[in-house]
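Q: I'm writing up a methods section and want to include an example of the input and output format. Could you take the sequence below and give the corresponding predicted structure tokens, formatted cleanly so I can copy it straight into the document?
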Amino acid sequence: MNVLVIGGTGFIGPWLVKYLKKAGHHMTVFHRGTTATPEDVGQILGDHHQLRNYREQFQRENFDVVVDCILSSGRQARELMDVFRGVTHRVVALSSMDVYRAIGVIHGTEAGPPQELPLREESELRTKRQTYSAEAMKHVKQVYPWVDDDYDKVPVEEAILSEKELAGTTVRLPMIYGPGDPLHRLHWLLKRMDDGRPFIILPDDMAAWRGVRGYVENVGAAIALVVSSEQVAGRSYNVCELDCPTELEHAKRLAAIVGWRGEFITLPKEKTPQHLRFPGNLAQHLVATSEKVRNELGYREPIGRDQAILQTLEWERRNQPAQPMFGPFKYEEEDKAAADLKRSA
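A: Here is the clean output for your methods example:
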């Protein structure tokens, strides 16, 4: 097939391109030109915000499938479908697990009890739009400059899946870690371990919380399977690891791989230093199943979890973030909290 990947040079895109090339597809990447394209891959330089300007060029290329990695709003998704209607046969859009009602429960925008788990493609979606606060979006846009002010994957999916003249598919992604992670999700743990901290504190609600993850190369391989399949039109697919450990279990796995022999201390949230607390309702877990993509398309992770974590940690050590997303590192406050625990024991 002749495949166009929009935004294919970022975190996920190069892995998607790798597995599409491996499957024998002809590849072209549409991007701004600020990063290099993979070897033996065609490119179209342009601005995602001015997609209509490139319609004639897209039409000349005769793409069979278009994959958009950087849709962030319903407006962008509707424009994508308008541009490619009559130009291509199928569109695949990257979405997120944050479409589910569970995310709204965590952030306090959805009323009612926690959503039933595991989350399946048929599970209830959010009814409230723009779940994230303006302050949170400010930080997100610093990391992901392609995100617009109306970020919300629910209307993205509505636009992609409701189009009658152009087949659409959405892929719901988890928290993704790996080399190139712009959020440096493992950094907050690794730095404390590498700094020789004798203990790491987790608030009790966070220690017990379960959230879906995926390694970036494995996620790219799964998306490539969806792109390569003709049977996926009109469907959504969850992509995530098979099991979903607690944050404490996840941290202990990292410690074993690193060889850190310190202690994990779980404190009541109110006694945990403020910079280590998560503001959401963590009684709602974010556990999903990816059995649909596994059963229908035969997806299996090409990279095992321990290897995936090790490769991520090695990259994190070589690429220390200037402004950690999951900081700050207030060791004096953490030492005081641990000392208070010992005095009260």
